[in-house]
Specification:
The protein is an alpha/beta fold and about 450 residues long. Helices cover about 45% and strands about 20% of the residues. It has a seven-stranded parallel beta sheet, with helices on both faces. Helix 6 links the parallel strand 5 and strand 6.
């Protein structure tokens, strides 16, 4: 296929070519991968400014997306890709292979740094989904930080750089410019731009941005960050978000309220800290979806209202494929029991075949977990127009990334995203938080406290 770049893609390519370290904060569907590959090709074969190129990506993206993009576009088909995946023996063989681009999943970056040590020879590194390195305490960040001085060029790609607020930016931009713009240490970054909010002893649960600090942060990174919104550049078909209320009554409502009471009553007169709030929220969301794990990891079923609603949506699709996002294993099992035609994406080459089958309308009902399907998957070529969120998620990043699997460049049909929202449950609080673009820990804790107050009244 011939690549005819949009103006914003030309700009992105030029920015990579002229800026040794750059973050492309392009929203989903704007073609970050092909733009980056086009620049890499020129750096390798026109400018001779790159030697060995490493791409770090989520596993499924590393397995499929980068090599598939090389094969897809005429001007890139001469590039060779070696995938540093699989067992240790296979990974070592892939490192030694002659290739233009080496691709590794982010879970193995710590291993790669240890394996190569001072012999690190990747002068150009692309970090696909830069936001997955937002935690400065994670092993993947610490490993990459060690070898960052040996890189001549770094390209960071993400559509959601600050899903939980600007506090997330420090680690990401440290890997881009080694702390030149947002301080050499995370402590310095916090002191300069934030002040501590709620805390438990010495543990700060929330960092609140100082007045005018947001503009100062954007100004600091402006020369190395390219930020674009899909709505400004793509003429995508309409995306409709529809909340389908799920009403439970009778014995199901009684059981739900009993379990909710049993869960929350121990906290009526106690402080709800972040870890407790997360646990309680998780349990309440499970119950809203119709089942919950008990203390023995057994499944206690509460209602089938969401299964019934999903059945109506599938019937209304009139034979067109339907995509469903779930968050809990028991939700997955209950959906598969009700709908034997449902499939999940497998791993490795089998998963690549599943993606191809989906795009050819060979899979009628595809079940996806937002964590495993949130980045880099191109699932927009099928006739699917119905996307269903069976379980709610607090993660704004997961919500936006997952929806972008079908509502992205190349989509020609209107997409209806339906959230199954159980009335008078934690589902409602999550939807409100997502709509406010607020998925902070504080929002979660306040929602849980509100449920406790309701039980107490």
């Amino acid at each position: 296929m011939k690549f005819i770049p949009h103006e914003y893609q030309k700009f992105a390519v030029q920015k990579i070519l002229t800026t040794p370290y750059v973050a492309l904060l392009l929203e989903m569907g704007l073609g970050k991968t092909v733009s980056t590959l086009t620049a890499i090709d020129q750096l390798l074969y026109d400018r001779f400014e790159a030697g060995k190129v490493l791409v770090i990506a989520p596993l499924r993206v590393a397995e499929d997306t980068w090599s598939r993009e090389v094969e897809k576009w005429d001007h890139l088909q001469h590039l060779t890709v070696s995938k540093i995946l699989g067992d240790v023996k296979t990974r070592r063989k892939a490192i030694k292979a002659e290739a233009d681009i080496y691709v590794i999943n982010r879970e193995n970056i710590e291993w790669l740094v240890t394996e190569l040590g001072r012999k690190w020879h990747f002068d150009t590194v692309v970090i696909d989904e830069l936001s997955s390195f937002k935690n400065q305490d994670s092993k993947r960040f610490r490993a990459l930080r060690k070898v960052r001085p040996m890189m001549k060029r770094v390209v960071g790609l993400t559509g959601t750089p600050a899903p939980n607020g600007l506090i997330d930016l420090w680690a990401q931009f440290y890997l881009i410019d080694q702390g030149e713009r947002l301080c050499k240490t995370v402590g310095g970054f916090r002191d300069r731009y934030f002040h501590a909010g709620k805390r438990s002893g010495y543990v700060v649960h929330e960092w609140k941005i100082k007045k005018e600090a947001e503009e100062r942060i954007y100004e600091a990174i402006g020369d190395i960050a390219v930020s674009m919104k899909a709505e400004d550049w793509l003429n995508l078909p309409e995306r409709v978000i529809h909340d389908k209320p799920i009403r439970i009554s009778g014995k199901a409502r009684e059981l739900y309220e009993q379990l909710e009471r049993d869960l929350l009553i121990p906290y009526l007169d106690a402080d709800v800290v972040a870890t407790t709030a997360a646990t309680l929220s998780n349990k309440l969301l499970q119950m809203a979806s119709g089942a919950v794990y008990d203390e023995e990891r057994g499944v206690k079923e509460i209602h089938e209202a969401k299964l019934d609603a999903l059945e109506d949506i599938i019937e209304a699709a009139n034979g067109k494929p339907v995509m469903v996002f779930y968050n809990y294993q028991h939700s997955l099992e209950r959906i598969k029991n009700r709908f034997p035609q449902a499939q999940t994406l497998r791993k490795g080459k089998d998963g690549n075949q599943d993606i191809a089958d989906w795009n050819k309308n060979k899979i009628p009902l595809l079940l996806l977990h937002p964590k495993s399907a949130g980045h880099g998957l191109n699932l927009q070529e099928s006739d699917c127009q119905s996307v269903v969120w069976y379980d709610m998620t607090w993660s704004l990043e997961e919500w936006e990334q997952a929806n972008a699997r079908v509502h992205r460049q190349g989509q020609t049909r209107k997409i209806v995203i339906t959230r199954l929202v159980t009335e008078e449950s934690m589902d409602v609080d999550v939807v409100l938080a997502i709509e406010r673009k607020s998925t902070s820990q504080e929002a979660l804790m306040q929602a849980v406290k509100a449920r406790i107050q309701k039980v107490a009244s």
